[in-house]
Amino acid sequence: MTPGTDLLLLAVIGIDLFIASSSRLRARIQACALQGLALAALPLAVEGTGVLSASGRVVHVVLAVTATLLLKAWAIPLALTRAMHRSGVRREVEPFVSLHLSLLLTAGLVGLAFWIGTAVLPRLPGVSPLGIPAGLATLLVGLYLTMSGRTALTQVIGYLVLENGVFIIGQMLLGEFPLVVELGVLLDVLVAVMLMAVLVASGQGIATVREDHGSGDAPLDAPRGAA
Amino acid sequence: MMLWLLLAVPLLLAAACALAPGPRAVLAITPWGGLAGAALAAVAIADASGQPISAWSGNLRIDALSSFHLALVAVVFAFASLYARAHFLGEVALGRFGRAKARRFGAAWFAFLASMNLVLVANNIGLLWVAMETTTLASALLVCLEPDAPSVRAAWTYLMICSVGIALALLGTFLLAGEARTVMGAGTSPFLWTDLLDAAPRMRPGAVRLAFVFLLVGYGTKAGLAPMHSWLPDAHSQAPAPVSAVLSGVLLNCALYAISRFLPIVNLATDGDGWSLLVPFGLLSVAVGAVFVVRERDMKRLLAYCSVEHVGIIALAIGLGAPAAALFHTMNHSLAKMVAFFSAGTLAHDLGDRDTDRIGGIFRTLPLPAFGLLASVFALVAMPPSAVFQSELWMARTGIANGHVAAVAAFLLGVAILFVGLVRPFLGMAWRPAPQGAARFETARIHWPLTLLPLAVLAILGLWMPESLGSVLNQAAAIIGVRP
Q1: What region does B383 belong to: left with phi over 0, alpha with psi -120 to 50, or beta?
Q2: Which of A162, A170, A195 sits opposite B140 (nearest CB)?
Q3: pLDDT given at position A225
């Protein structure tokens, strides 16, 4: 445990709040990439860089950190940015709740997470007191985004944030995962987001979910793959 | 070795399909691949029949429970592969199944098989999660094989809701492993199911209960348990017929399998709380299935709501302490639902319509699919001599013997509503006269065994249960039904 851990966890919570209060999708995607970066650094911060000189673990840690970095901070944001350009939807359309209210709600969720994480659940020995609250807060904000988002991309971002929250909690509870589980989960998330991005960009009117789709200007692509 | 082959062979077939020169090559690989997968599963099951076998330092393992589900996957997948060939060959002739689409289908089809096999042979609960999410990814690709707006929408809802749901199951997995880590000795892993089972009595009940709630909601979403079922009717009705058959026939079982894997751990740690948590979800699914079936007109959506109902029945049966009846019901539902989706798929495809209030005279235009659909629907609503009747009776009797009279009464009411709701629209399609000048459609020869064989098995099992099947069911059920 190093002071770096607490800083990273605080950054993760800050990003949660930023994502919920921004309406531009590009900003949300970039924030998501930043959260991926923080997540990749988390195992290094938790164990200290000393782990890199400890034999046996080094391959595991390097692989996990590199994979997280590549996928969450680079490949996934890139796929989302492309999907955003192809779908032509750049910002959240008429959100169900105004951005101010959204920020307030998210702050409430973070508060709830801190209450559960510190007052309800027992304190875990050897784990940063911020760990479980930060993970829970991220999870709740992610769930909130998937449910309140009116654009498909916001829902995808919500899914990613939710997944990040689950990962932080797992990291805090377990310290490390078996490598095959960690890489498998990362790969699944990557493929899931890629698929979601393809569906969003497919021009079949899901880019803005729950919106009336009879409005003449619905983008129409030729059906793909019907060679 | 066999365990690796169960995963490697389907993956190789997927690669072969992805590189196939054309749609006909893919459709030549599909049936043989399905049969090869079934043969491999048979050998693996025979290997594991005496003693569970494991590989990869305990990460993979096959025991009586996985064998049972593996057999169901193998049979339904092989039948669906044979059906898929006939189904898509017709599309090729019409120019609607080109090379790109065929490659996409073949690759996703066999990747889907590999991921279902991995779900069933994973002893590492993290790997189980990875495999389960992979089934969603592969099958979402199959749901939107036809890239029209309703299918893409259905695939989107499916992918989104199931991924979010399953993320909660990952949290449950981490919570369980985190709790296990605190009580486990050296040389054991908090991710291995076998080690978890040993350590279960030492875990704190509260922590395990919390983990199981997340696991139940997460994997329950994938199983189509109400109230997390909202994606199911769209995905199962928009997918091409062979895909629907596998989705409804065995993928739902795989998700229930995951839940039932965690049950003994939870029950050992909490003195039997796992069962009581399953009952409300089961009852709600039965109710939702029954209510929505009554209001639905679309053939395939009717069958999809019927799946919600049956998943509820299976969960309820486990919750009422009748795991053997639950497994018997799982098998009966898989066989009957597979034939129902094959027949409904052929009807919908040939008639170009799925509205049960409009279609008529199906026995004149398409006698075999008409017979298959009606017979399987009667089997699904537990009309004797269908084996479904036997499994539901078994479960109701065990439930009453265990003192759950109210739950059994509610279940029987749901089954009665389903009977009326499901039979009425399908009988209408047979009784209503055919439209003027309707011609008789040709049916591919392969449809005869695909339709009649499973129905014959269901009828025989409804009258007589072979001793060997009974012992297989009891062995598999003993794993779910471990008592504290």
Answers
A1: beta
A2: A195
A3: 33
Whether A71 contacts A186, CB under 8 Å: yes
Contact A62, A25 (CB under 8 A): no
Q: Least CA distance to B167: which residue of chain A?
A: A163
* A227 to B98: CB separation less than 8 angstroms, yes or no: yes
All residues of chain A having their beta carbon less than 8 Å from the beta carbon of residue B174 are 166, 169-170, 173-174
Structural domain contains residue A206: no
pLDDT tens for each residue of B234-288: 999 999 999 999 999 999 999 999 999 999 999 999 988 888 899 999 999 999 9
CA distance B25 to B13: 12
Say if residues B126 and B175 touch (Cβ distance below 8 Å): no
The pLDDT value given to residue A207:
75
Size of interface A-B (CB pairs under 8 A): 117
ipTM, 2 dp: 0.91
Host domain of residue A127: 3-201
> Is the CA virtual torsion B272, B274, B279, B280 positive or negative?
positive
Is B59–A180 a contact, with Cβ atoms under 8 angstroms apart? yes
Q: Do A195 and B170 touch (CB under 8 A)?
A: no
pLDDT value, residue A193: 93
Whether A207 is covered by a domain: the verdict is: no
Contact A170 B140 (CB under 8 A): no
Total domains, chain A: 1
- Residue A53 confidence (pLDDT): 63
| B79 touches A at CB < 8 Å | no
Tokens of B36: 């090869």
Which residue in the set B136, B137, B147 is minimally distant from A202, CB to CB? B147
Label the pairing between strands B53-55 and B60-62.
antiparallel
Q: Residue B318: in which H helix or E strand, if any?
A: helix B299-319
Q: Give a yes or no: residue A141 inside a domain.
A: yes
Whether B190 and chain A come into contact, CB under 8 Å, resolves to: yes
Contact A4, A128 (CB under 8 A): no
